[in-house]
Amino acid sequence: MRNVGRVQSIDRAISVLKCFSESRSELKLSEISEMLGLNKSTVHGIINTLKYNGLIDQDNNTQKYRLGLYLIELGDLVINSMDVRNIAYPIIDKISQKLDETVHIGILDGTEVVYVFKKESTRSIKTSTKIGFRIPAYYTADGKAMLANLDEDKLLKIIPEKIKAVTPYTITDRDKLMQDLRKIKENGFAIDNQENVVGLFCVAAPIYDYSGKAKYGLSVTGPAIRFNNEKINEAITVISEAAKEISKEIGYRGYH
Q1: pLDDT digit string (tens) for 104-119?
Q2: Which of 25, 103, 164, 234 could link 119 by a cystine bridge, Cβ 3.0 to 4.6 Å?
Q3: 98: three-class secondary structure by DSSP
């Protein structure tokens, strides 16, 4: 796509913000400058503007920069604007009580799942994730539940031919993944049996919006050792019915 209408200074400011991550929560000016390939004076001017607007903070002792608290407010606004969270909460609460495992709602952003809602299990051993956490969609049940509803031509463009294995159970061959996605589309649910994290099992189903798009993935995740055949079948039924209920609540008319 042509960069029509884009403003370079805003692009650069966003690039500064994107330098930070969970593993790089604090950075020096020189580190940001090196990461972006920009001179320090340019980066310093951008950072000062971001600091003034509360998007970046600076540690007075180390002089390192970190993301500002105002981003939390903006993040809350984004999540709160998603009606699905409020609509889904009572339904998810019932799922959590019935299955006593962690329940997530994720959205598809390119080839990544971004988790926007979480209801934790009450058990001592449970899934550890955070709101806003991102992961390649083809590693996860909720991601595959959404990917399965995309056109195959699009899938072939966005899914790499060879997928990096993150566990011994990861599907690394694109053709095999495509077969899995076709089966998921036909069945209406997806399973991740330790494909992303060894020891974790996940069942997911798509949530459709008013336009018929699989906009969200609803999933239940827990230790694989607790998911025997009986619990897997129960989870499939509970998650599939809940996803249908939420879909109807947000305007989908494909279910009768």
Answers
A1: 999 998 889 998 888 8
A2: 103
A3: helix
Q: What is the pLDDT of residue 144?
A: 96
Between the CA of residue 98 and those of 52, 55, 227, 244, what are the distances in Å?
48, 41, 14, 17
pTM across the whole model? 0.72
- Give 142's contacts (C-beta < 8 A, 6+ positions apart): 104, 105, 106, 113, 190, 202, 204, 217, 218, 219
> 227-253 burial, b if ≥16 CB within 10 A, otherwise e?
beeebeebbbebbbebbbbbbebbebe
Buried b (16+ CB within 10 A) or exposed e, 43-61: beebbeebeeeebbbbeee
CA distances from 166 to 119, 155, 163, 245 (A): 25, 20, 9, 33
CA distances from 32 to 12, 25, 39, 40, 68 (A): 11, 12, 10, 8, 16
Place of tokens 């230790």: 223
Contact 215, 107 (CB under 8 A): yes
The pLDDT of residue 106? 92
Closest by CA position to 11, among listed 46, 51, 53: 46
* C-alpha to C-alpha distance for 129 and 111, rounded to whole angstroms: 19
Is 94 within 8 Å of 245 (Cβ atoms)? Answer: no
* Angle, helices 229-249/83-99, rounded to nearest 10 degrees: 160
Query: What is the per-residue pLDDT across 178-232, written as a single tens digit (0 to 9) for each?
Result: 999 999 999 999 999 999 999 999 999 999 988 889 999 999 999 999 999 999 9
Average pLDDT, integer, range 156-182: 92
